[in-house]
Amino acid sequence: MRSLSRLAVVAAVALSSTALAQRGSHFSAFGGDPLPTGSSLLHAQFGWPGISATYLTGVMPKASFGGRFSFNYGLEGQTGGVLLGLKFQGLVRLGLLDTGKVSFGVDFAPGFAMYFPSAGGNAYTELGVALPVSFVLGIPLSDALALHAAVELPMLITFSGYSTFYLPIYMGGGLEYALDRNLYLTLALRLGPMIDVRLNRPAFGVEGLFGLAFRF
Predict the structure, then answer these.
(1) Domain 26-215, CATH 2.40.160.20 — does that match?
(2) Per-residue pLDDT tens over the stretch 161-212
(3) pTM of the predicted model, to two decimals?
(4) Is 18 helix (H, G, I), strand (E, B) or coil?
C-alpha cells in the first residue's frame, strides 16, 4: 500500500510537470501571452508604414523583453503621403491573463524616432520620443493557427522641426500560422484615426504588415 501511494505521488508530480511544460510551450509572435521562459523570437515585418525587425526573449513567466528597429516610409501609419523615418525602441511584453483558451497582455515599446524632411515640406528633421502601447487578446484556433485582436496606441511626441503630439488610436487583428514548430507566417492589420494634437484634427491611419517569425 505504501509503495502504491508513493507511485501515485510520483505520477501526479510527473503529470503536473508535463502540463506546466505544455503550457509554457505556448508561443505567439504578437502577444497576449509572453514568450515561454528561455525562448527567444526574431520577427521581421514589412508593409505599411514600413519595415521592422523585433527581437524578444522570455525572462520570466509573465514578462518578455527585447527591442525593435523600424524603417518607416509612413508617419506612424498616416496615409496620404510618404515620410521617411527611423525608430529605435525597447520592448516589454507583459501577460495579464491566460485562461488556456484566450490570453490577454500588453506591449510597451518606448524609444527614439526621427523623420526626415519631405520634398517641398518641412525643412527640418523631426526628432521625437515614441511611446507606443498595445493591448492584445490572443485566441489559439488550432495547433498551427492563432488569431489575435488588438487596440494599439503608437504615440509619438516630436520636439524639433514640427513639434506636436501624435495620438493614433488603431484597432484590428491578425493571424499567425506555424509552418513548423519554430517558423511562423504572420499578418497584422490595424486602422483608425490619427490625431495631431497641435492641429486638433484627426487623419486616417493604417498598419498592414506581413511577417515571418523565427523562434529559437
Answers:
(1) yes
(2) 889 999 999 999 999 999 998 999 999 999 999 999 998 888 999 999 999 9
(3) 0.83
(4) helix
